[in-house]
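Budget justification aside, the reviewers requested a transparent look at the raw inputs and outputs of the sequence design task funded under Objective 1. We therefore reproduce one unedited record. The lines immediately below are the structure tokens for a 267-residue chain.
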């Protein structure tokens, strides 16, 4: 197999999902939509293969014959292109950029540059892998390196915030999280910080007691208490339950039941 062909594949209706959608979670996948009769395709195709070879695996070039594969026509419709060659870049299962026509090599390289992950993104991904393997110190170094290069990197900020929350450093975590609200993961971490703050909730009312139970991790007692508090402080108890659901997640065994109970009580 040539160096070029290591980074170039033909995709079909049967392999598109695995190669392009799933494969783009590991590295960007650039789909070249072409056909035998298309003159500009014969110019652009070899150029894309050359660039793929030069980039040595930084992205995968997936060549898709639109006449032989229905997924090619579907993709053209999805990106609202009426002509070929059309080139569509995928990352994390989604199309992120495209161009139509036989671009010159300089423009092709500029397009590739625009869809490749930055150094900060690569650092953040490596840090996520370190965190998943249990290397908290390595993960923290990676996340901080990513943020030093790109202070707005969401994955690095939230990954670091999660590590900080796990070891009880809530103030720095709060600053990192607030910048990225209302992203779903930021909402989850923000809720976790809020529940931690409930440990200092003053008063002896039903809701205050339930919040302190939640801060202590006793959700089996906290959620019924929040439900009971709806009669005393409807808005406060409702918001506390929503925060609890955000912390626990929909997979927690108690959440579906208490979502139903809250909906029933409110509506």
């Amino acid at each position: 197999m040539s160096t070029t062909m290591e980074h170039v594949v033909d995709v079909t209706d049967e392999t598109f999902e695995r190669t392009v959608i799933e494969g783009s979670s590991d590295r960007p996948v650039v789909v070249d939509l072409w056909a035998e009769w298309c003159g500009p395709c014969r110019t652009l195709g070899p150029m894309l293969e050359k660039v793929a070879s030069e980039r040595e695996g930084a992205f995968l070039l997936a060549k898709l014959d639109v006449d032989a594969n229905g997924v090619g026509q579907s993709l053209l419709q999805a990106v609202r292109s009426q002509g070929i060659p059309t080139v569509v870049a995928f990352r994390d299962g989604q199309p992120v950029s495209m161009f139509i026509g036989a671009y010159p090599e300089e423009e092709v390289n500029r397009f590739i540059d625009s869809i490749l992950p930055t150094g900060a993104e690569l650092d953040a991904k490596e840090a996520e892998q370190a965190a998943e393997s249990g290397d908290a110190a390595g993960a923290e170094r990676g996340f901080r390196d990513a943020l030093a290069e790109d202070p707005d990197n969401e994955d690095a900020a939230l990954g670091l915030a999660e590590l900080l929350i796990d070891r009880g450093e809530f103030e720095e975590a709060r600053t990192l999280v607030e910048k990225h609200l209302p992203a779903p993961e930021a909402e989850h971490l923000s809720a976790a910080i809020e529940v931690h703050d409930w440990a200092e909730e003053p008063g002896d009312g039903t809701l205050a007691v339930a919040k302190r139970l939640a801060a202590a991790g006793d959700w089996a007692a906290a959620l019924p208490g929040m439900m009971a508090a709806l009669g005393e402080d409807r808005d406060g108890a409702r918001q506390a339950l929503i925060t609890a659901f955000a912390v626990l997640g929909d997979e927690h065994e108690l959440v579906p039941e208490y979502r139903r109970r809250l909906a029933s009580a409110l509506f």
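The chain has three domains: 3-115, 119-196, 201-266. Residues 145 and 168 are 21 Å apart (CA to CA). Computational costs for records of this kind are itemized in the attached budget.
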